[in-house]
Amino acid sequence: MPRISPVQTALALLAGSLALIVVHSLGRFAFTPLLPHFLNDGLLTLEQGARLATWNYVGYLFGALSALILHAPERQRVALPVALCLNALITLAQGFTDSYVLLWALRLLNGLTNGLVFVLAPALVLEWLNRHQQARLSGLVYLGFAFGLLVSNVLANALDEQVQGAQRWWPMAALALPLAVISALLLARLETAPQKAQHSTSAVRSPLFDRASTPLFIAYAGAGLGYILPMTFLPTLAQQQLPAGDPLVGSIWYWTALACMGGILLWNYLSSRWGDRSTLCATYAVQAVGAVAPLVWPGSLGISLCALLVGSSFVGSVFLTQRLARNLQPHQGPRLSAALIALYGVAQLLGPWLAELWLSLGGTLTQSFALGAGALLWAWFFSWLTPSQPSQELIKCPT
Asked: Domain Major facilitator superfamily (MFS) profile: where (predicted)?
């Protein structure tokens, strides 16, 4: 395999990062800093916002699962750029309607295209880096998502006086559309090797859930449910708990994004010192404190701790789980990724739905964060039960 230049590597990482900015930061999580504005403008109620978030996660789940059918190179070459550009167009379309029914359909489609791209784009970059012995750099792709969170906060608040209601999606779309085109062109340059046959009959038939991996799967369900409540409703909670004009009301998503960027580098570094399992347990403990902070210390302190602790740790939980799972079952390949994606997607789906249910019963948004903290403690406990190395049987399994 010919050596590649640092510029080629950087362009490959940029291609994946831009795709995540478009679909995950501007298309999906921009809804979080925009929601307080939508509530003030009368475009949505809090219950409707929670419902839209739930259906967006439904779409994300089905999009991620559809990637299993479309991951073959000949299908991916068509599906990935189409889904990427369609996601940006959906972001634009949301800026031209105040119909709740149409917004519901658009958020569902946004989730579908987001899930597809979120699986295929990083996987394509990882495969390309693997071919060129640069796989250790693959985690840097997620810095694009973290940077995109920062950008989405700026765009959500910078034109507060100039746009109203659904028009608040316009700045997101103005950036998403050109980035989608650039990303699609860069991703098309990444050539991948032909798919190889399955490793072995014994590996394919080995169980996905065994004594080593089952606790990790159970923990990951808690991770999806635990993080999604703060990452969906934190700016809205800041608006509810803090007095009007408090600087944190408009900047809390900004601090969350900065924490996310630093956290990706921090947890990747700590895992080389502590090991993946111990570091994963630490990410859940940190997130649990952050999720419960607004309930224990309502006001500026609790809101700030939630932003910094959850924001800095949730992406670390994702890539550490993926890395540990592959270490425990290196022979599983696509089956393992599919199961983790589906489980995380279902757990994320439950979070906003449970929040909506709690609100309908007379509860408060602050109280619903206790559910997230409990789910993260669940994730910590089952991660602690997960071994850090595969069993001898799996080590001997032919690959």
From this structure: 5-391
Can you give the C-alpha Rg of the chain in angstroms?
20
Q: What distance, in Å, lies between the first and last C-alpha atoms of the chain?
A: 22
Closest CA to 348 of 20, 56, 99: 56
Tell me the average pLDDT across 237-266: 87
**Would you tell me how many other CB atoms lie within 10 Å of the CB of residue 392?**
8
Write the DSSP symbol of residue 335.
H
Cα 53 from chain centroid?
A: 13
Q: How many CB atoms lie within 10 A of CB 59?
A: 24
At 398, the pLDDT band (50, 70, 90 cuts) reads: very low
Tell me the average pLDDT of the chain.
Answer: 84
pLDDT digits (tens, 9 = 90+) for 120-138: 888 788 778 877 877 677 7
**What is the crossing angle of helices 73-93 and 46-70, to 10°?**
160
For the segment 240-260, the average pLDDT, to the nearest whole number, is: 86
Q: Kindly list the structural domains of the chain, giving each domain's residue range(s) and its CATH number in brackets, ordered by start.
A: 1-191 (1.20.1250.20), 212-399 (1.20.1250.20)
Question: Rounded to whole angstroms, how far apart are CA atoms 29 and 39?
Answer: 16
What the block records as the tokens of 342 is: 């589906």
Helix (H, G, I), strand (E, B) or coil at 154: helix
| pLDDT score at 227 | 87
Q: Is the pLDDT of residue 395 over 60?
A: no
Plot region of 289 (φ>0 → left; ψ -120 to 50 → alpha; else → beta): alpha
Place of tokens 């700026």: 154
Are the CB atoms for 67 and 116 separated by under 8 Å?
yes
Question: How many whole angstroms separate alpha carbon 57 and alpha carbon 352?
Answer: 9
How many other C-beta atoms lie within 10 A of the C-beta of residue 247? 9
Cα dist. 57→105, 119, 243, 285 in Å?
12, 14, 31, 25
Give CA–CA dist 133/258, Å, rounded.
30
pLDDT at 199: 44
Cα–Cα dist 233/312, whole Å: 16
* Whether residue 273 has pLDDT greater than 90: no
